[in-house]
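Convert to structure. Protein one:
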Amino acid sequence: MQMLYNSDSFAVLQIEFGLPEADAPGGSRGGLEIVDKFARKGIFIEGAVAQSFKDGVQALIEGGSPSQEVLDDYIAAYTTLAQQPVHLH
């Protein structure tokens, strides 16, 4: 697990399962977990959705140095689908 982004509002983690790509379901070896800290909900995305998320972030970066607000607004579009409550242990 690797933290890719962390703000007051969101955290984005890259999770890899350690499976060879050929053995992984759908050829996927992992995905991204996006946590909305205020709503206390998270979502796990993989495959084409995760790639779309990464491509969108890359486009924001290539367009200049995006502010935290710009990145948070982009991430918020994905967390509207979040249903899984976050529990701290």
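Protein two, convert as well:
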Amino acid sequence: MKIVKMTEVPRQSAVAPLFTAPVTRQAIVSDSKEVVINIVNFGKGVKNKLHSHSVDQVLVVTAGKGYVATEKEKRVVTVGDVIWFPAGEKHWHGATEDSDFSHITVARVGGKTTQLEE
């Protein structure tokens, strides 16, 4: 068993072409052979670009207000909302223009992310 206090996990800067601006990432569980669990923290208006994953992805909103979107719909989400994207579904997520936004992301180890827009 491992208990993690999210407030005690250091934030690492994450600069990648997938994001419209830098975000921070906190590795909640880094030693699992089965799942990857991180917190991703977005500043106001920051999002990731349209992408898909080779494995299912679950997001759990932990702070602020954000958007989650597929090619068919865009929704506002807040603390406590849980979002599931099945493998292969094209989507994006990030902060609203007026709020920072954080979510826990859970996926299987070895999953690949494909960025679908520049």
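Strands lie at 12-14, 23-29, 35-42, 51-53, 57-70, 74-78, 82-85, 91-95, 101-108, 113-115. The mean pLDDT is 96.
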